[in-house]
Write a structure and sequence with these properties.
The complex is a heterodimer of chains A (about 400) and B (about 230). With about 400 residues, chain A is mostly beta strands. Chain A has two helices and 26 strands. In chain A, strand 9 and strand 10 form a beta hairpin. In chain B, about 70% of the residues lie in helices and about 0% in strands. Chain B starts with a helix and ends with a helix. The chains are: A mainly beta (about 400), B mainly alpha (about 230).
Chain lengths: ~400, ~230
Amino acid sequence: MIEPDEWFEYVFAMIKNFWCRAGLRWLGMLLLCLAVLAWDLAHRTSINTPAAAWSTAPSFDPVQELKRVGQGQIPMPDNTPAAHASSLLAMPKTHASSVMAFWFAGSKESAPDIQIAASAFDRTSQQWQSARFVVNRAELGAALGFAVRRLGNPVAWLDAHQRVHLFVVATGLGGWAASRIVHLRQRNSDTKLSFELAGMLPLSWLWNTSYLVRNAPLPLQDGGMVLPVYFELGLKYPVALRFDADGNFLTMVRMSRRTHLLQPTLVMQSEQKWLAFMRDQRPEGKVTVAQTLDAGQHWQDLPDLDLLNPDASVAGLGLSPHHMLLAHNSSAHSRNVLDLSQSADGVHWTLLQTLAQGSGNAEFSYPATTWADDSLWISYTDQRKRIAWQRMRTTKP
Amino acid sequence: MDLSNFWSLLVNSSTPWLPSPALTPWALRGVWALVAGAATCTLLARQPSIWRWWLTLGGMAWFMLPGAMSPAHWLGLAFQMPSLSSLVLSLMLLWRNAQKPAKLTTGEPVTAWKRLSLAGVVLGWVLLLDTLAWTPISIYAWGFSPAALGVGLMLLLLFWALWGGSDAQRSMPLTLACVLALYGLTRLPSGNLWDALLDPWLWLILQWQWLRALTCRLLTAWRLRATTRA
């Protein structure tokens, strides 16, 4: 029994015992944890949630018609019989080109010789320049430190420093379902278009597989962008990735709770309200929709559109708050008709014009859209052999 | 504030810090070399020491070769980089193999390691279900945030409080401390904490160990019952 006058000595002895045995260990571990956390926080900055930016001029008048003023096929690199999955990039007014196009080309889709090709529409000559290859899997594998089995869908973006960023699908072991997204960035002070590795986007715990990119990013008011991507291993769902003005990865947000949707395209209705239109994998599918009301922080599924979707990629563009465009295949079970539709509310769509039409197994697919030089630019795959393009200007009705 | 708003704040409050693309190719070869070396050394445990170590070091050197000559070039194609947990456990295995006599794990694992391996199994299932969009919120995205690292460090302190005082069990929290410190310094393998803590191969190994232990326990109980009845 400890006497009251011995309590103080007893407690003091216990404290001393604790510090001698466990206290130093505790203190050491606590200091290590605090050091790791402090080091981590020192390398972070807080994220804002900027609104989207319009690609059209503020003076754009939506009450106008679109008239085709140019069309054709983008030149191909020599000896490349196959082409697919184009992406368009609007260039600034000071650049020599209006638009750049990127796509994958080679002997056939998923062939080992597939590379990423590029061409530019020259403002002076009003012609597409000769195409050339800008990314190949051997150089990409050497930069990454591990092999790349195949290359696929490229998507381009221009950052706040006028550098072209390229997001390219690179497959691992297992075809498209084992894809990853590689991020490339134009080399500094490089007048000739060449790219350096920015990194592999870390998107999945399962060996970082099964994420792909297809459609153009949505520009933000802070110079950053939101890149729509999708997961494709069995289940398919869309995800929005946010990047800052330098092209640094910021966040990832799932866009839908449904698991049969892929290849989202982002269309802004306002700075805060965006719609995502997606390809539907189901038979008898429709163009599916999700929306955000807070600049991409949260997404909600909406009812499917009345537009048929024969498991085909769509491409959308918001020109003004009540003028949206959507390029899509509109025939059931085939991609032999490619249409351009318009909508004021994102729900009710009317056909603007047919972009391309064929019969039987003809294919006009994987459209891409952009706005440059007061024109709507559209590109799409033509029979999996060429990339076709069209240019439309607005005219008063 | 509802759950999704709170989750957004927790996940998206600050920029991810990703590893340098210049560091990653070297780290890929180095980590695979160490994991392969540990596996080789352990599998050859019964072989004469000189052969075991020559094969182990030779294999590791093979993994460090540049480009397509290295098996890491092809393993990275399929499986990217192993987790930092795999790296630290491999280093521990190599260290134990290097002791004379080799101090490999025998007998029943201590409580701390049992708890950690169970946590690894559960975490793996959560991450797999998250990958397949079965979770209501994105668990993987949270791995980029400092909040996730903060929670990891708090768990480390808890484990240290529970097992740091025991010589037999101290190795578990020390291992976790090494993993978190390495992650804090290098951001390997991907800048995401979950990738640093657990990779799918390690998760499969942990599951196999748990299933094996469970099967042994059930068989033992069945035999005991059969013996008792007899």
